[in-house]
Amino acid sequence: TPAILDVLKKYGVKATFFVTAKGSDSLIKREFDEGHAVGIHTWTHEYGQIYASSEAFWSDFNKVQARIKRITGKETKIFRFPGGSSNTISRKYSKGVVSAIAKEMGSKGYVYFDWHVSSGDAAGYSSNGIYNATVNGVSHCSGGCVVLMHDIKGTTANALDGILRELKSKGYSFGVLTSGGPTAHHRIAN
Fold this sequence. Notes:
By secondary structure, this protein is mainly alpha-helical. It contains seven helices and six strands. α2 (25-33) packs across α4. The protein is globular, with a radius of gyration of 16 Å. The relative contact order is 0.17.
């Protein structure tokens, strides 16, 4: 994460970080202080726990919200489902749970985000693979593009400088995700 924050600062790019219980408070504080958006991912990231029921999900969710508020002084209204809203593994734990959560999320004023382009870092791509997947993927987007990357991956940190240099040279601009801006939603599969 520190290496990614350094590269983002070098290029004047703001990003969105969806956080869990892991990682130091000081990194979340740095993300926030440097103008990045901080959103909720999950406390545990344990699919069996968070997708057991809506109640289990919200219990986990509220812990992350409390952590973010304690560190930044503000609540967030943005969220990313582990596995994305289109994940099918959640069916194994509770049929229809993601659909129910997405509906509740809207009524509680939260906005969830999926992505248009996956960097491939979660699939174990090399830094070169992440660069290619991101730059090629973004070239197929029109009207905005949410790219999924994981800040805990060294390969992502190694690829990011080249990705930002290439995309900036092609005139791309960058921004944070907000509850009032455009969204990226997959088709919910559970």
